[in-house]
Amino acid sequence: MKYRNKLLIASAVVLAAMLAAAAWAWIVLPTGAQVPIHWNINGQVDSYGSKAFGLLMAPVVVILVTALMMALPYFEPRRAHLMQSSKLYATVWLGLLGMMSLAHADIILTATGLYSGSIKLPLVAVGVLFIVLGNYLGKTRSTFLMGIRTPWTLSSELSWAKTHRLGGWLFVTLGIVVIVTTFAAPKLLLPVILGGVLGLVVVVTVYSYVVWRGDPNKQTGARPAA
After folding, report:
1. Domain parsing of the chain, residue ranges
2. Is 41 left (phi over 0), alpha (psi -120 to 50) or beta?
3. At residue 219, does pLDDT exceed 50?
4. Residue 47 in contact with residue 38, Cβ under 8 Å?
């Protein structure tokens, strides 16, 4: 599949860098040190883990993400469509690598005292990821494992295309709102993100059904009359 070998190399490079950083932190941190592994919405550490768990958690997730993304095409019934949606596939893969790299850096820098920690950078990264995903969402072909998968988008190419175009705009809008809220009203971030995602899900689900109803070429599963 297009980009897959390059993405595998990117995963290997990211994993190597993460393990090197973890090895450095392991030496710097004292035995028995507690490592921050979670921050609340105000940017304050609210959960700690052992040195091994804190330093190896993100690299293990990267390994699992890489294995999952590598295996995805083999389980996709519409593999040709997935191949035609390679930009979205690559964006999801790289986006997950980027988020885990950022989380790993936050953990190590905070644990070693080089950085006081801030919730703004990860949230801005989430907003940017929404914008990038939205840009490619409207250009994807129907697949069972990626995209906005409702019974109606999966049984109507028209519903899939129109729903993903709408979903793309909504993702971009939500990403912009998340970034603006991060700086303008950080205390409202949680309701904004939760409300935005919930609203997006409801809108695209209803819209996919409306478009499906009006598609004369939709698949209904009904048997033809004898």
Report:
1. 1-115, 119-219
2. alpha
3. yes
4. yes
